[in-house]
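Q: Structure tokens for this one, please.
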Amino acid sequence: MSSDTYISQLKTLLDDDSLLTDQESLNHYGKDWTNIKQPAPLAIALPKNTEQVQKIVLWANENQVAVVPSGGRTGLSGGAVAANGELVIALDKMNKITGFNAGSQQIHCQAGAITQQIQQYANEHELYYPVDFASSGSSQIGGNIATNAGGIKVIRYGLTRDWVQGLTVVTGKGDVLELNKGLIKNATGYDLRHLFIGSEGTLGIITEATLKLTRKPANLTVLLLAIPNLDCLMPILQRFQKSLSLTAFEFFSDEALEKVMAHHNLACPVEQRTPYYCLLEFDAHSEEIMNDALAEFENGLNDELILDGVMSQSQQQVEELWKYREFISETISGRKPYKNDISVTPEKITDFLTGVNNIVAQDYPDFEVIWFGHIGDGNLHLNILAPKNMPYEEFTQACEQVNPKIFGLLQEMGGSISAEHGVGILKKPYLSYTRSEQEIVYLKSIKQAFDPNGIMNPGKVID
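A: Here is the predicted structure, written as tokens:
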């Protein structure tokens, strides 16, 4: 059947102006932040509700047309790429908050709702949605759930998975499932909700979600610490965790700090530059907690775990100090970094960082290396910057040749090749470094059960 015939049929399933075929839209919706492939989708469908999504998926099964679900397209693993004539189902028009229950502290929304929209709505009701990251202004809740997004506050609040109390999904077969229905307790067998969380659109499309909210933190305070070496990271974390309830514990290298300061014309936040820095955020709701934080800071200085530091004195200063960490990705994006989003258990962080630094020094001697990450939950971001005079394809190939060494070390330490960016296209060749052969067989069986015709986001995560 011709593309024109497909387009004509799809138009009958959607409202007017909800099917896009112009080249600008195909390019926009056919890729994510990776830009790793030239977009080439069939068309862009913009449904307004679950029923329209179901109609499209049933049609796709009948016509054997592959489907790529699309949220905010802020992913970094190629999970939302449509480069082979797929139909993109974008949820931009499914962006409403449709329910709120103050008693149970739950919000119900369509999957296209923007993360920041949920955060602001919660704040207006004196509540808090804590899943937060640099792309919160453009990422969509459905995409967050499909990738089990993490971010900067995982050490205190956990991953997206921990805040999802119900889902409406359209499976790859075209069935509509209401999963868990917002229940806090539900001991009735397999919880299919958790299969869809982190599934990257390979089992079906998340169309609605019930999310848990919590109380707002009081007087968030930030400490930015300059430290002499990697060995100081875990002792600092352990000391502050004994005294404080940390909401974040972040890490970045001096090379990352230098890039941010130069790009954004920011002054150095500390008097003494050091090889590494860590940023702590905590809920300072009492004078006693603030005193505990200052005492641990002084102890760290005396023991030479900390060489310098600064503490926020206002909400504005909290935001200013966070810029040095949160602006890193944006700052280096123009250099087309080769990214590795990896994790080990926190107690192995220092050994892993040291091991990877040795590999990087040996294999990338002429490349700039930018480290940062959510050190409190074991998540590290290794960014290799493309030299300005090297063709990008050659640079990528050089990085890929070193991946087996890095992932081999991860495998030895029981780590993950993808902590929060997902598998998508980029990490699929390396899945066996984290998942056993038996696990992959089960994953394929689950995929087959929900998507027997293989139309849902083909080529992503598993074959």
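A few notes: The two ends are 25 Å apart (CA to CA). Residues 3-90 form a domain with the Uridine Diphospho-n-acetylenolpyruvylglucosamine Reductase; domain 2 fold (CATH 3.30.43.10).
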